[in-house]
Amino acid sequence: MRLNYDTFTGRRSAFVCTAFVLILLTFVAYSLLGQPLMNLLAPHMGKNMLTAVMLLIQNGLVVASVLIAALVPERNYPLKERLGLNIAPEYSLRFFFPVFVLAIGATYLTQWGLSSLLEAVGHEPKEQSVVEFFRTLKPLAFFGFALITVIAAPIAEELAFRHIIYRFVRVFLYRKEAAVLVSLLFALCHVPSVVAYLFHPSGGWSAFFAGFPWEQLVVPVIPLFILALFLQRQYEKSKSVIPSTLIHMGFNLITVFLLILQVYYGVGE
Questions:
Q1: Exposed / middle / buried, residue 200 (Cβ in 10 Å: 0-12, 13-18, 19+)
Q2: Number of independent structural domains in the chain
Q3: CA separation for the pair 160, 63 (Å, rounded)
Q4: What is the 3-state secondary structure (H, E, C) of the chain?
Q5: Could you report how far apart the first and last alpha carbons of the chain are, in Å?
Q6: Which pTM was predicted?
Q7: Which terminus in the chain has less CB density within 10 A, N or C?
Q8: Alpha-carbon distance 4 to 26, whole Å?
Q9: Which long-range contacts (CB under 8 A, 24 or more apart) does 192-195 make?
Q10: What's phi and psi for 121, nearest 5 deg?
Q11: How far apart are alpha carbons 49 and 51 in whole angstroms?
Q12: Residue 24's beta-bridge partner residues?
């Protein structure tokens, strides 16, 4: 099987390969240039504005990568399909609404169960960094970051993980194995503190295992992994990013609503 074989179209796809390479390059570029860019912009804007700009740049690079790849000439592969906007004829709303409820319910139930279990054994999870961050925001800034979280992030992440990375990985693995791998990658990418710790452990292996923040790995990686599996299944059924993006937006919207209750009204503390 060739490297650029497209699972959905049944033939070689220059679009998938080009988009995958461009997204990979944007990840590398952002990792190398993100901090220097922040240092350059920091004197000209506040911390919250700087964070918002960097998030928009990060999401924008992913969307731009897919749009650029979609311009690659490819016969019998309409632009709408390349962008993941053409839903398969056999897909219907009866596949969407039950999965929407199940995905969100299973994710939050798993998160609650794991948090309760960790507390019961004396390993109470620390407050997530996102909660700490939102506590520092004024209402207007909170609203701005909520828009990024609910709209920009799901679009970029579904295009990257479901529409491109999955289809590229699917060349080498069976459907289930590819779905598990990409879903795990999706979950881990949402826990930057754990990723940073993995690459910069202090004090050798014994200190690494003794000091590793396991509770931060378990919550929220496992719930997000479960959510990603549901999103992946929707993408498989619809052959489009629209259903998975809507579910992703719904999940993030509920998360923002719960953050509002926690930050401003003290619910759940």
A1: exposed
A2: 1
A3: 8
A4: CCCCEECCCCEECHHHHHHHHHHHHHHHHHHHHHHHHHHHHHHHCCHHHHHHHHHHHHHHHHHHHHHHHHCCCCCCCCHHHHCCCCCCCCCCHHHHHHHHHHHHHHHHHHHHHHHHHHHHCCCCCCCCHHHHHHHCCCHHHHHHHHHHHHHHHHHHHHHHHHHHHHHHHCCCCCHHHHHHHHHHHHHHCCCHHHHHHHHCCCCHHHHHHHHCCHHHHHHHHHHHHHHHHHHHHHHHHHCCHHHHHHHHHHHHHHHHHHHHHHHHHCCCC
A5: 53
A6: 0.87
A7: N
A8: 20
A9: 192/129, 193/129, 194/221
A10: -100, 10
A11: 5
A12: none
Q: What is the pLDDT of residues 37-87, one digit of tens each?
A: 989 999 988 888 888 899 999 999 999 999 999 998 887 788 898 999 999
Predicted pLDDT at 235: 94
Q: How far is CA 87 from CA 21, 173, 230, 234, in A?
A: 25, 24, 17, 11
Q: Is the dihedral of CA 72, 76, 77, 81 positive or negative?
A: positive
Structure tokens at 7: 């699972």
Alpha-carbon distance of 21 to 164, in angstroms, equals 10
Q: Tell me the pLDDT tens digit for each residue of 141-195.
A: 888 899 999 999 999 999 999 999 999 888 888 889 999 999 999 998 887 655 5
Rounded distance, CA 218 to CA 111, Å? 9
Dihedrals phi, psi of 92, to nearest 5 degrees: -140, 170
Range of the domain at 255: 5-265
